[in-house]
Specification:
Shape: elongated
Largest sheet: 6 strands, parallel
Number of helices: 14
Order of helices and strands: HEHEHEHEHEHEHEHEHEHHEEEHEHEH
Strand content: 15-25%
Distance between the termini: 54 Å
Strand order of the largest sheet: 2-1-3-4-6-5
């Protein structure tokens, strides 16, 4: 169905969420219609964040907000749904719009398989009535579902539209760009060269795919890398766990601005523990580029200042390869916790592949390599 019709049927004038490629039509519509507008559309740091934001909107206006996310974000909303929104607590109604990645019977990436299996069940367990929209679903059927939902909403309950792959369309064109010149895949190539035989933990999305292809192009083993294919925002904590367990080995984390934002508290924990063998590289294009390019708020914040405030003894920002190479080399040699923010352009090559090893093979090869250090 046309996304404009879905928005009309839902009838909300306030949307907040975390972008998802399955919801690209909705995200592009919202950006084309509102952009980032505090009165109508805010892209949040994580799904629990946007759920609480929507709750505040309801408290102030009495209106029903709409919250969008990939189904992986269900884990982040369980706490506020159960302990804040629930009709046994504050009875705060909202409409969730959830992209169904990993739907059973539809091929998808390994991190989505189990999440796809439990997507509707999790909603049921949280007491959220849901309706699935597919390519063949008519406008009339969605309108009827929304009429049924209004009973729940009026009683302070939450509801959800679960969106199958390709179910929504939007004819408008939205282009996401920035003024940065450095290309992420080339940045990763420089990190690989500087890190040598050191282990690398990389964040979810295209960064891990580009790391995998860099190893392929170099005819190198993949044993050095842990590809965090899911669990967005947690790669730096994984790297911390590795670093404190292997104190004589330099450990690198390739992170992204969206991931850092999603669970920024991890930086405080890293800074408090100050592992002298961890190099945290944040590639910042101020975009959720892997799922379409919608903006993050990372272009309005000072990641270096945040890192220093969290206790990182070394933090710097670079925007060219000469400075990047210098800082990578210094970080490797200094044996002290370091953060390097790298300003990056939006985009990746069209023929970017995906890892050809399974997640289990990746884990086992990485663990075998760590055991040899």
């Amino acid at each position: 169905m046309k996304v404009e019709k879905l928005v009309e049927i839902i009838g909300s004038d306030f949307y907040t969420g975390v972008p998802d490629s399955q919801l690209k039509a909705l995200c592009n519509y919202l950006m084309d219609t509102y952009g980032i507008d505090k009165n109508h559309h805010i892209i949040a740091a994580n799904e629990g964040n946007c759920t609480a934001l929507a709750a505040g909107y309801h408290l102030a206006t009495g209106k029903i907000p709409a919250v969008y996310m990939q189904n992986s974000g269900e884990g982040n909303i369980i706490n506020p749904v159960a302990s804040l929104l629930n009709d046994k607590v504050y009875a705060i109604p909202m409409v969730f719009i959830i992209g169904w990645r990993g739907e059973p019977g539809i091929h998808d990436e390994p991190q989505h398989i189990y999440q796809g299996e439990v997507t509707v069940k999790l909603l049921d367990d949280m007491g959220i009535n849901s309706y699935v929209i597919g390519k063949e679903t008519t406008d009339e059927e969605v309108a009827a579902a929304m009429e049924n939902f209004k009973v729940d909403l009026n009683n302070g309950k939450d509801v959800a539209f679960v969106i199958r792959k390709g179910a929504l369309s939007f004819d408008g064109k939205v282009k996401y760009t920035n003024d940065n010149k450095m290309v992420r895949e080339e940045i990763i190539q420089h990190i690989v060269e500087a890190s040598g035989d050191d282990p690398i933990v990389s964040t979810t999305g295209k960064a891990s795919r580009e790391l995998f292809e860099t190893r392929e192009a170099n005819c190198q083993s993949h044993k050095y890398d842990f590809l965090t294919v899911g669990s967005m925002g947690h790669s730096s904590s994984i790297a911390l766990g590795v670093a404190i367990s292997k104190p004589d080995t330099t450990v690198w984390c390739i992170d992204g601005d969206g991931a850092v934002l999603m669970h920024m508290g991890s930086m405080a924990v890293i800074g408090a523990n100050k592992p002298n063998n961890l190099v945290h590289v944040v590639i910042n294009n101020a975009a959720h580029e892997t799922v379409g390019g919608m903006p993050t708020v990372a272009d309005t914040m000072d990641i270096v200042a945040i890192a220093k405030a969290c206790g990182y003894p070394n933090a710097i920002c670079v925007d060219n390869f000469e400075d990047l190479d210098k800082e990578l080399s210094s970080a490797k040699l200094r044996k002290e916790l370091s953060l390097i923010e790298v300003k990056c352009s939006i985009g990746a090559r069209d023929d970017l592949g995906r890892p050809t090893t399974t997640a289990l093979e990746n884990k086992e090869n990485f663990m075998d390599y760590l055991s040899s250090l």
